[in-house]
Specification:
218 residues; 7-stranded mixed sheet; two-stranded antiparallel ribbon; PLipase/COase/thioEstase; Phospholipase
Amino acid sequence: MTTIHTMERKPRQTTNEAPPLLLLLHGYGANEHDLFDLANYVDPHFYVVSARAPLTLPWGGYAWYHLGGTPGRLIPDPTTRAHAVELAQRFVVDLPARIGTNPRRTYLFGFSQGAIISLALSVRIPEAIAGIVASSGYLDPELLPTDLPEALTNMPILQMHGTYDDVIPVTAAHHTRALLEPLPVRHTYQEYPIGHGIHPDGVRLMQQWLGECLAEER
C-alpha cells in the first residue's frame, strides 16, 4: 500500500473542541515543504498537514500523477491520475481520525496538480470536505462523477489563477469556472497578473476566506 508522507504543525491555539484541519497538496515536481510556509498565514486554530505526492520523479521532486506533453499543453496519464485520486480520497477520509481533527472541518489547499486533485475530491467526497482553495489548477471533466453527491450543496470553493500562467493556461481556469457555475457550490474566483504561482494578494485572500469559513461554522 502506498503511504503518503507528511509534514504537520499542531494548532497554535487550542480549545476544548477538535480543531479544524488544513491539508496542503503541492504541485508537480515539488514536495511537502513547498507550501508549508502557508501555515504561518492561516487561523492559529488550524492543524496544518502538508502531504507529499506518491510518485518520485527521476530529476527530483514528487508528483501526484505523470504528465506528458509540454507546459501549456500538458497531458495527464489516466492510470496514475486515477490512482492518485483514489489514494488522496482515502487519505482525506482517514486523516482526521489519525491526528484528532474534526472530520467535518477539513479544508484543502491545492496548488497546480494539487489543486486538480483537490477539486476532484470536492465533487467526489464533498461529505468529507468543508472547503477548497484551488490555486493554478482546474476541475478535470474526466474526474467528475456521473451523479453529483447531495453533500456538494453549499460547498465553498475559492479558485485563484494567474492571467499569464504558461503551465496551466488561464483558459483552463475559465473552463472550471463555467463547470462550477451551474453546480450548487459557493464559488469565488480571482485572477492575478502573474504566471504559474501564488500572488501575495492571493495569500491574503486565502487567509481572509478561510477565516470567514471558520467564523460561519461558529
